[in-house]
């Protein structure tokens, strides 16, 4: 007997398993919409790339929000960094914060690289995490120090280029996606995509120092969380 479809998938022609799998493929791997279309077609599922795009828009952020609530609390050491991205021929800045374990805490796309932009990032981090870190590590951009004094004056901070490799490395998956997508079309699109992408990456990330057996257990748990988030119900 087949269980009733979850209300979030009402009026969708395809079942939850297909929709959630397409969304997972798009956010988990450096694939374009057309690549996801071909991969589904290889399984006999005829879906246009535009349909995949609509699924990603409708379900991506919702899934990401639920993943965030299920993941363990962030570490007490935050690494902050910013990189330039080109959007529609204009320079923007992608601000990102990760903890000492490599978990992405948040991202923020802004048109400025100044103290006001840095304050906005710190306030957003405090609101999402609910607690200040023990220490923050950042590069020597003066805007960070000014923002920290205003938003988190009691937090220890260290400014050194060589200490912030974890945050700098976390930008690499974004660079790969940026190339696949032939750059972001707008700041809003970049923010929406990265907000979902980073949470899916957090869920399925593999730490460097982990055994194969532990990784298989962690991966199984990640898929269980994904199925719960996506409300994928097995047939019975």
Verbal overview:
- There is one protein chain.
- The protein is of the alpha/beta class and 236 residues long.
- It has 2 domains: 89 residues, no CATH class; 115 residues, 2-Layer Sandwich (Nucleotidyltransferase, domain 5).
- 51% of the residues lie in helices and 15% in strands.
- The protein is built from 9 helices and 5 strands.
- The protein starts with 15 loop residues before the first helix and ends in a 6-residue tail after the last helix.
Q: How does the major sheet shape up? A: 5 strands, mixed
CATH class of the largest domain: Alpha Beta
Mean pLDDT: 90
Number of discrete domains? 2
Estimated structural class: alpha/beta
Keywords: DNA recombination, DNA-binding, Transposition
InterPro entries: DDE_dom (IPR032874), IS_Transposase (IPR052183), Transpos_IS6 (IPR047930)
GO molecular function, one term: DNA binding
Pfam family, one: DDE_Tnp_IS240
Keywords for this structure?
DNA binding; 51% helix; Nucleotidyltransferase, domain 5; 9 helices; Transpos_IS6; DDE_dom; alpha/beta; 236 residues; transposition; 2 domains; DNA recombination; five-stranded mixed beta sheet
């Amino acid at each position: 007997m087949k269980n009733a479809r979850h209300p979030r998938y009402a009026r969708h022609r395809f079942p939850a398993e297909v929709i959630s799998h397409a969304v997972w493929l798009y956010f988990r791997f450096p694939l374009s919409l057309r690549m996801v279309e071909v991969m589904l077609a290889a399984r006999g599922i005829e879906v246009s790339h535009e349909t995949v795009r609509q699924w990603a828009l409708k379900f991506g952020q919702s899934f990401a929000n639920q993943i965030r609530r299920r993941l363990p609390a962030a570490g007490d050491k935050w690494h902050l960094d910013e990189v330039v991205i080109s959007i529609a021929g204009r320079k923007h800045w992608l601000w990102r914060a990760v903890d000492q374990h490599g978990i992405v805490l948040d991202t923020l796309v802004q048109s400025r690289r100044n103290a006001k932009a840095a304050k906005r990032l710190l306030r957003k981090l405090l609101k999402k995490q609910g607690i200040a870190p023990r220490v923050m590590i950042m590069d020597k951009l003066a805007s960070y120090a000014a923002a920290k004094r205003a938003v988190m004056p009691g937090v220890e901070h260290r400014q050194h280029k060589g200490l912030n490799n974890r945050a700098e490395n976390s930008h690499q998956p974004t660079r790969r996606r940026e190339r696949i997508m032939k750059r972001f079309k707008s700041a809003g699109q970049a923010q929406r995509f990265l907000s979902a992408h980073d949470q899916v990456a957090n869920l399925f990330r593999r730490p460097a120092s982990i055994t194969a057996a532990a990784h298989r257990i962690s991966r199984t748990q990640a898929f269980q969380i994904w199925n719960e988030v996506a409300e994928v119900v097995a047939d019975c």
